[in-house]
């Protein structure tokens, strides 16, 4: 199924064979349909907290992560998603039911309800939970990549950064350290034109985000983020360079955030024509057209994939919905490794009654 | 990407949503804050706002909704995502005679500006670089299922830094009066807005239509009582009030609630005065336990009112973990009214 | 600028200056730290060092002198000036099975890494991302005319963060044993080294040649006494000792000194036990006053030993300003032996 | 003396007239001789704390600041020096005796002994005390520049950054904000090859520091930092662009730190040939040769300047040495504007005696 030789096998697009192209389509569909299920659950108040969609950007996470060595035994490449990279987790093997439970704050979610949305870690599958503070994960991933280089492991770390997150000091310090250490870190700047309501023009005065690469002395490339094969190809080049010891890379994908920052944001700051322009460039539709036009898939095959995904998501939603919320004492999950350090874990501590 | 210059035609009229007080209508805590910002910006042309998405979006919580159209992009400035950068820049502008007000989208992100705030801003006057009249404001607090990074109470990160002031209002009146005082203050002020109080209907209050300030550094007796002093701030003032009502009904206890309002400088005169009357002290804070402000309060009381204490100083706080996301966990994490009741009963019997 | 790869020929022999203990010679606090680092690096290949100028220069205080030649550039890594970046990176490496030790050139600069330490590192285990076995170490403290940005005691910036541990040794023995324990601990540890103690001849001590650790989280009775408990750490242990000796001679008082050694988690068992014996408590910290650790200690004692207190809990601390540069000012700023004497006399008479 | 028309007046080097060239020479000499005096005082243990020399780099501070509008009434350009820009303060009008008192921690120093070395603020003369934390001043200066732009004042902010300091998140966040706001901020990266003992190769993988300009979308230039006229010309172009509303600029000067990081650093990590190479390119000597070769000054004129500076420094040193140390209570200088906030300003506070 998912395997390394994927890259070399086929003769068609980007070296990918038919089965692999179908797999890409599967994960594009899975991402979109899981998110659609989340939107429905959100409207029913079953997603706790905000919901951040990647509608129209799915090709970035899916295409990029398809270029990684995905393993389930903790020996593969490692990534940290940003908020709009749910697809990357799915492709790394996160079961949809787990993901839905996490968004629904269930007791049997990967974090047992302590954390939210894509904040999930799985060292075996190779993904690290981000924290909300933008930029921080680039620092963390610099160290992940550094450890690979230090130990001579041919593994790569992949990070995502929003256009907005590039302005953080954390992005700068983390990426510069990786660059100077020639650590195998690939960072994809997902330029979706907005950071919340802030357009890129108020984020940076640079011509394009890969202009930043020169300042770090790293390799860079930019591509159409709504073309899953382009994203895959570009990422693969960067990943294989990094794997070969040629150091970090800074990539940019040009895409667009079709929904508001989160479901609660009506995005009134977005011009209607802009939205329309990008609707017409939907990455899933575009890939579908391409698959059919090139003869890489038949309409029936695609329909089968979509139906299989729908079923999968339906089953996952049932599993998640029927899962229990956590027990309150779950909040007492240890902050320290030493079990005995427990006393201050209380809201109120009364002196021994015999003193009273 | 050339910089966009907004074409702003400054409208003549103040929009409705900042005229509640003018029209004699009650305001929420959020509206009180909004009016304070607006009035100070009208009063003083050196006052300006900067932060993420505060312009056309009006801020994540819509505090500055409508400000951009009226005041223009130079006084309502959307920033890149760089809390240290724009907080430091605000300090630089303050040096040059401006009065910047920085919005943190969530106060959780003020941790990114910890370095310039504690090293540069707090020390500037003492170092001989003059005052830094700067306000850093934004939403804090839990109970809204925001998870570990949208629910923090970061007061103790700064409480230990001489040169900073920390303000944390619990009522609409105080929110407006304290924010105005903070903006006019020559010292840097961190101003915390509990996001669960922002729109709480019970906090709606009709405010005086005249300009008023609530001086920084003065606690307020929220509820008078003679039996036990409960020191609280922010959301916990209201939780303490609920506990006090229950204790009055069920136990006949008269709880005095002191709302700190300003955490730094700490109004220990007010605390000591109350404790000398009630002889019993409970501190309630939503913040986590170890290293919370209760400790400093306990020491000041020990130093100044030890002989008046008839019982140990106790505290009700959140537990020592990050703020959990799932409702049952977060509810377990946060201080409960029942904890306050239990603590007060214990103290009363002591 | 292509990356330089140091050609390192790993020498066979351990250099003299990390063999003091092996040779039965007494070590200073700095040498104890150096030996601990060296021994742990030899013991465990996942241990590595990163920080500014720790390689060929051997660190601003020469703690890692000679390490680069022996261990090579990957295990003694000079970093760009980016405390947040390399601290975050250390956390990432720790996730992958490494045991990084970060040197802050001066601990004053840990404020730059406040965000990743408090948000990412401290919460990682609880968030489900596993432990972060990471040590952040470096020089702290005043008295060396370093001015406001090379003299700080930053413990209270982190004391309030569940998930972190804070260690602050006062003797060469503890410095070595605690550092080894910190490196082997699965939790992130901030390890503070008082720069004025680094080479203090009086602290020279011959250490056991066997491997030993001093467990984290346990205070130590530095001096036994029955009249007053003085809780201190770092440099203040020694200032308290001087005061205790004076008080013994001049007043016949027997002062018990408790050296906290680990600030977080706080060993309140030890404090409470001592206070139940002496019934009087003075906390001495070099750190500034408001919001210092004395508050938390006071509250824990109030919660657990109120009935044993025969006098108010007092504290001797630095004043609430930045650390001044000029000698007369810094001496005025820092806690004085005479303050401790005065406080103890007051408590004794109470 | 020092005035705006300086730039336009002359016909010789960089538009500078003879008097101005002599003035530049004066300040190069003043910087060097004040620092030499400091070294002597340091050896006598009269400089408290460390001493950081700019030997061999004096042309940067002097040449750059000569391009500013210097005023004494608080209406001119504003700068923040880094540790190796003592010359910039002298050129802005800081009296040498004040500077020496500051290094000696005297009671009548500009900070009354609370702060050290170049950490001096004078809003009238236009300089801001840095703090030690590298990068922070770029944030502060971004705001200074922003306030100029907002108020339509034709003033410019000038910042210095070491090669090492460019790695800080503060540098990135501060400069990016200024760039996107088109604030009149000019930052000079003083590439002296080392940050303490760390060579630039371990600081960044970029080809040269001005490669960073593209990532911020700003104007940039690089020049020989040991050529005072080159530094002046380059800075003037950037400053005048900024003054005209054309936004921020990132400049680089190539120079070399001839002493160790501080006087206590024997710089054993520096190759001897490297040091020799740069000794031969001493900026003061080079300017002297140029002045003579071009006929812009006679040997006598230069000798007169040197003697005048020597006398000035001698007098300043006497004044500083005879100044008193501060009274201990000077530590109680207010951290707040409100006078009554004083209670915790004590090392020990005893309960009212009547309680005891
Ligand atoms: C340090 C920090 N500041 C502010 C925020 C609040 N915030 C969350 S997402 C966001 C916008 C992010 O924009 P971008 O990086 O472009 O990512 P996108 O949402 O477009 O994928 C902001 C400001 C944050 N999470 N972290
Ligand atoms: C944030 C921070 N980290 C570390 C230091 C310690 N430090 C002081 S100067 C210096 C080297 C600075 O190098 P560079 O920026 O190149 O300036 P130069 O000394 O060469 O002029 C270091 C690491 C500091 N002052 N600030
Ligand atoms: Mg974006
Ligand atoms: Mg340098």
Describe the structure.
The complex is a heterotetramer, with 2 copies of chain A (356 residues) and 2 copies of chain B (350 residues). Chain A is an alpha/beta fold. Chain A is 40% helix and 9% strand. In chain A, the strands form 2 sheets. Chain A has a 5-stranded parallel β-sheet with strand order 1-2-3-7-6, with helices on both faces. In chain A, strands 4-5 form a two-stranded antiparallel sheet. Chain A is globular and about 75 Å long. In chain A, helix 9 links the parallel strand 6 and strand 7 (249-254). Chain B is an alpha/beta fold and 350 residues long. Chain B has 2 domains: 16-203, Thiamin diphosphate (ThDP)-binding fold, Pyr/PP domains (Rossmann fold, 3-Layer(aba) Sandwich); 220-348, Rossmann fold, CATH 3.40.50. Helices cover 35% and strands 17% of the residues of chain B. Chain B has a 7-stranded mixed β-sheet with strand order 2-1-3-4-6-5-10, sandwiched between helices. The longest helix of chain B has 17 residues, at 235-251. Chain B is globular. Chains in contact: A-B, A-C, A-D, B-C, B-D, C-D. At the A-B interface, strand 5 of A face strand 12, helix 11 and helix 12 of B.
Compact overview of the structure:
Chain A has 356 residues and is α/β, with parallel strands linked by helices. Chain A is built from twelve helices and seven strands.
